[in-house]
Amino acid sequence: MPLSKLQFKPGINREGTNYSNEGGWFDGDKIRFKSGYVERIGGWQKVATTTFEGTCRNMLNFVTLASENFMFMGTHEKAYLEDGGTYYDITPLRTTLTLGSNPITTGTAGSGIITVTANSHGSKAGGYVTLAGATTTDGITAAEINQNFEILTVATDGNSFTVDTGGSASSGSTAGGGGSVTAAMEIDVGLNTTVLGNGWGAGTWGRFTWSSGAGSLAGQNLRLWMSDSWGEDLIANLVDGSLYYWDATNGKDARMVELATVGGASNVPTIVRKVMVSDVDRHVLCFGSNPLGSSTLDPLLIRWSSQESVTDWTPTATNTAGDIRLSQGSEIVTAIRTTRQFLVFTENSLHSVQFVGAPFTFGTALIGTNVRIAGPNTAISVNDIVLWMGQENFYLYDGRIQTIPCSVREYVFNDINRNQSFKFFSGSLSSNSEVWWYYCSESSNEIDRYVIYNYLEKVWYYGTLTRTAWNDRGAGNRLFPQAPGTDGALYNHENGLDDGSVNPPVAVNAFVQSADFDIGDGQQFMLMNRVIPDLNFSDSVASEPQVTFTMGARNFNGNATQSTENGNVVRSSVVSGTDNYTDQVQMRLRGRQMSLKVESNTTGVKWRLGNPRLDVRPDGRR
Length: 622
Hints:
622 residues, mainly beta, Jelly Rolls, Methylamine Dehydrogenase, Chain H, Elongation Factor Tu (Ef-tu), domain 3, 2 helices, 1% helix
């Protein structure tokens, strides 16, 4: 009997049953589709061995006039500028205290823990402080004391705290430090996960602020930063918190400061949900803000600065500062910028905000109602089309709101932790025409899955990976998409072929599995004797790259799958880009329906699957 060519539809389809998706792919991990064919994704490598504190959930790449290529990284503990693998701490300070004489007391002999007396310092355990001006005390050197520390404990009276210098006290219980010690107290750290309230309706899905829940005890959302560039400078805010500014002329070691404290500041918003810059007309906009003359957040109010000013927020007859309130919804969830407008999402509506010029400056229009978004970081603009993850489906706006047909919708939304929706985020991989959404599976409180939409080929696929933010290829030397992990490391993605989270790197385990297929609707059994592979290993760097072919068979849809056990490894030697691999894989398997699985779990392997062929023939009806 002639060989049977296997030709599968691109993308993964989980909307039906395994058998109903005959001719398609049913499962996979760490794979993508190009021109209709499946291949393994690229690997990732650490940008540097250095690490940062906290979990980063916001990234922004910008370049200064001095050609410094920075990545802003906002974590739940700190704020950084990353440059070439070096992390510059620009976390805002809450206050700087000048301490009394000899405010440092050592602990026990041999310990590096010291107690710092700082009356009414106002910090909490887990916060950060920078000590300066101290002298050597009880064998702990000045260099060991004058550093940035995480606060270990805080006295109940709030007048002292402890830190670990890493040094070694000679005798212990000794006061010292001199009379010029200062303590620069950073803003308090935030939560790394959403804490649920109790009572009916206390979840986060469809709610932005916990006060709108019906729980008897309010919960708290995790800390999120929002950021944008103002020329070569940086403007950022904590969600429902203060607005901060970093001035490039002060250098990369300078910390961000509250914008309201910058010279010339006038009625700067003090509580902001999301800050963004309107590039063309040069306004700073705050989506969700306190009204002029109030310190309370109005979650539907949009305020903007005067044109070409980051500090002037007082509306007058001679400037363009102003505000406008949305007409629908109860709170702004997020906003996304396109080349022509901002799209603003409330909890149940979508609005357009556009620059219209004098005398109104900005105008709004309601685009749609009953529009929902999964979280504040789940919308993205690609080629001036906005795509977002909703609460039950995926959508796009290209002039009208459309549902994106999704072949993995139930797989995603039936296994998702809605209580951690603040962690969900989207990112683009423009080189492969992909939008990635990262989310938490139902049993996880941290990001552990992603789903990809290839908007060029209009197919879906998914996988497992822990990342907390994303930045596509950036300017200058940022040649790879970058994403942080929960291990304090920043990774270059699509860089090499392996998992560089450890040294030496380990293999990226990838696989794709087809849905079941049969002969004549399964009326006859099939007897399969061999597989003729069709692969491309040409980008591999291993001396003998290999993948594993596994054929599965079963007699009825509800039966367990029986798989081949031996002789299913396809090996290749790559010579000058030409693949020379195993001619045929001998297998012997019988069943009414069969499936194909291709997987790799060795280092240095990149593969692309073509159209393998099966030596298969009918084998009776019983």
